[in-house]
Amino acid sequence: MPPVALAVSALDPDAPGLARYARWLGVDTLESLGERETPYVAGTGPFAGLSFKVEGLQPTGSFKDRGSATLVGRLSELAVGHVVEDSSGNAGASLAAYCARAGIAVRLFVPESTPVAKLRQAAVHGAEIVRVPGPREAAGAAAIEAAETSGEVYASHLWNPYFTRGMSTFAFELWEQRHQQAPDAVVIPVGAGTLFLGAYQGFLSLREAGLAARVPRMFGVQVEAFAPLARASESGSKQAANVAPATSAADGVLVANPPNAPAVLEAARASGGAIIAVSEAALWDAHGLLGVRGLFVEPTSAVAAAGALVLRSAGVLVSDAETVVVLTGHGLKSAASRPGSG
Amino acid sequence: MPPVALAVSALDPDAPGLARYARWLGVDTLESLGERETPYVAGTGPFAGLSFKVEGLQPTGSFKDRGSATLVGRLSELAVGHVVEDSSGNAGASLAAYCARAGIAVRLFVPESTPVAKLRQAAVHGAEIVRVPGPREAAGAAAIEAAETSGEVYASHLWNPYFTRGMSTFAFELWEQRHQQAPDAVVIPVGAGTLFLGAYQGFLSLREAGLAARVPRMFGVQVEAFAPLARASESGSKQAANVAPATSAADGVLVANPPNAPAVLEAARASGGAIIAVSEAALWDAHGLLGVRGLFVEPTSAVAAAGALVLRSAGVLVSDAETVVVLTGHGLKSAASRPGSG
User: Fold this and answer.
1) What is the mean pLDDT of residues A144-169?
2) Of the four, A28, B58, B74, B268, which is 20 to 30 A from A222 by CA?
3) Which H helix or E strand runs over B153?
């Protein structure tokens, strides 16, 4: 990818949504489903003083659309007609939607155990679903093997740099919504870390270009039951910790050893942030507190809100720190509800 | 409500989303969940030449948020603390979300038979759900009775003029996205007709103010199995036809005798449009065609896309008519899928 120099004059004032940032991303084309900037709203009640960035209002209901719009734009430029990907979650649904818009066929490799309901959105968008026996990693291996034998492109949200680069639009958009200022801190759920890393790189670019005075402290949040990056962050390790498989309502953060792990840990450390973990009870508490204040989010998103409350009560975030909590997916994305609640 | 004179100078350039139109709506305050303008995107494939307005990207996933933001803003001005409403669908979820944001308690009266899953979103937003035995009308009667005996405000999406007025923002926003021009035709699913009527009134206001040269032909779409307004439109009646109860995947259009029926029929006639009906098969065909082009919509929304194809193939809409099809709700809103498909 070409190096990118950020200048306000390179923003396209007439392009809506992500296309506005095409030249900042160093791409010629973004695919579009009409996405606009996502809401930036003030928290109330226990969240007073915090702000929320509501990424669930991207077209497919999650932040992944930033990466898909950028990656699929590039695939279109290259006249790619078929891709493979492995994801049973929001990334698969998002890639399927943008590829459908672009006329690119998608084969999606998923673990055999994935419930049909979770694959519905990708299926509506015409993705061919290929079920692979064994653990999550087997689906990834099958996708790569398919790409190697068929010549289809491996359009991986985990590995493709255009996907991560698209995540930088999160930083650019927030900076514009805040009248060209970066916040003091950003709190994000972290699984594979594409948004965490892409946002960090976006903020770095803004500072390097002299457009922002600081890079926010970057805080990532996982769940206590499964916290490979939080454990590593706590111990100062540069690699994800080995942890036993576990379940959580926050399925988006259950990623064992993502390729970005060392970079995510370094971004957290270098920015003065950290990766932390919250309990399943804290997750559901935050989910409920958001809901009764008008914000319906995926359980995965609730970990960021829970994490922000923990960081504040621990004094890591002082009360006047300008803190942005990222609500990564819409509540309509998940059928999960608090155990025992009905 | 005060009469409103539209002037471009009265638009608030700094207010995001719906608040931009406060003075055009004649209100001081709108409640906000950070909503932005919804996408306006070109159709592809069989929809080439049509455009879509993607209302499913309002905060709660449906167009109802336009009405809720306006109505709840007014309730807040009046320092209302408790409201009642009757809706088991998108209107109830939307009102619950905006009232939650405003700190207004909601009691939602629903038919006893309503599935729990359909009430989940309103429940997350803290609405108290009151189940009422009998048909849909019994829930409405119970809400009105509760309001009369308790002094709570009946915040009805069907009856409250602020709710309908909020729908005018659909016309204003589309007019701005089209560089201050109204389209030739608009195609909308019609149940109670609040969006149909609010949009029509918005376009009328724009023309009266000299800001638009025309009012679009307004086409409403229902399903053949239950088409009280389409039957009336066909026969030239000024009242909704009596039709037998029926089911459809497009549950949003299954409204028997809405208060707005005469006004909706008159708006369709006066604008040179009509209310039509499409088959359940056509609905699902359109749902599938949208999906494989990147647009995942509620079955109710698919009736508008199906209706637009019918109007074009019948020659009612000529191919160069600038036609906007309203996709009223996000696909994530509904768990329904085509019978026999899965």
Assistant:
1) 92
2) B58
3) strand B153-154
Interface test with B, best of A53, A116, A129, A295 (most B CBs within 10 A): A295
Q: Give dist(CA B38, CA A338) in Å, integer.
A: 31
Average per-residue pLDDT in chain A? 94
Q: Among partner residues B34, B117, B331, which is closest to A54 by beta-carbon distance?
A: B34
Cα end-to-end distance, chain A, whole Å: 50
Spell out the residues 6+ positions from residue B316 whose beta carbon is closer than 8 angstroms to its own. Answer: B274
Chain-centre distance of CA B282, in angstroms? 21
Min CA distance, B294 vs chain A (Å)?
4
Report pLDDT for B13: 85
Distance CA A251, CA B55 (A): 28
CA distance A231 to chain B (A): 32
Please tell me the distance from the alpha carbon of residue A125 to that of residue A105, in angstroms, as a whole number.
10
Tell me which residue of B115, B113, B134 sits closest to B123, measured CA to CA.
B115
pLDDT for res A2 = 56
Quote the pLDDT of residue A194: 95
Q: How far apart are CA A33 and CA A17, in angstroms?
A: 10
> Can you tell me the distance from the alpha carbon of A52 to that of A186, in angstroms, rounded to the nearest whole number?
10
Where does the pLDDT of residue B241 fall: very low under 50, low under 70, confident under 90, or very high at 90 and above? very high
Which of A48, A43, A100 minimizes the C-alpha distance to A76? A100
Which among B303, B308, B192, B201 is positioned nearest to B240, based on CA atoms? B192
For B327, what's the count of Cα atoms within 13 Å in the CB-facing half-sphere?
33
Q: Which two tokens stand for residue B204?
A: 């009328």
Q: Which residues on B lie below 8 Å from A94 (Cβ)?
A: none
As a whole number, mean pLDDT of residues A36-47 equals 96
Q: Are strands A40-42 and A50-54 parallel, antiparallel or unpaired?
A: antiparallel
A45: left (phi over 0), alpha (psi -120 to 50) or beta: left
Q: Count of A–B CB contacts within 8 Å? A: 111
pLDDT digits (tens, 9 = 90+) for B135-167: 888 999 999 999 999 889 999 988 899 999 999
Residues A261/A253, Cβ–Cβ less than 8 Å:
no
Distances (CA, A) of A86 to A19, A125, A192, A334: 26, 15, 13, 19
Band of residue A235 on the pLDDT scale cut at 50, 70, 90: very high
Provide the whole-model pTM: 0.96
Phi, psi of B275, rounded to the nearest 5 degrees: -105, 130
- Residue B342: pLDDT over 70: no
Beta-carbon contacts of B109 under 8 Å, excluding residues fewer than 6 positions away, are B84, B85, B86, B130, B132, B139, B140, B142, B143, B146
**Cβ of A294: how many Cβ atoms within 10 Å?**
26
Which pLDDT score, from 0 to 100, does residue B88 have? 82
* pLDDT score recorded for residue A135: 84
Q: How far apart are CA A39 and CA B237, in angstroms?
A: 44
What ipTM was assigned to the predicted interfaces of this complex? 0.95
Q: Which residues of chain B make contact with A120, given a CB cutoff of 8 A?
A: 337
* Cβ pair A36:B41 closer than 8 A: no
Contacts of B48 in chain A (CB under 8 A): none
Picking from A61, A98, A332, the nearest residue to B294 by CB comes out as A98
The pair of three-digit structure tokens given for residue B82, joined into one six-digit string:
């408790």
B3: pLDDT confidence band, cut at 50, 70 and 90? low
The pLDDT score that the predictor gives to residue B4 is: 67
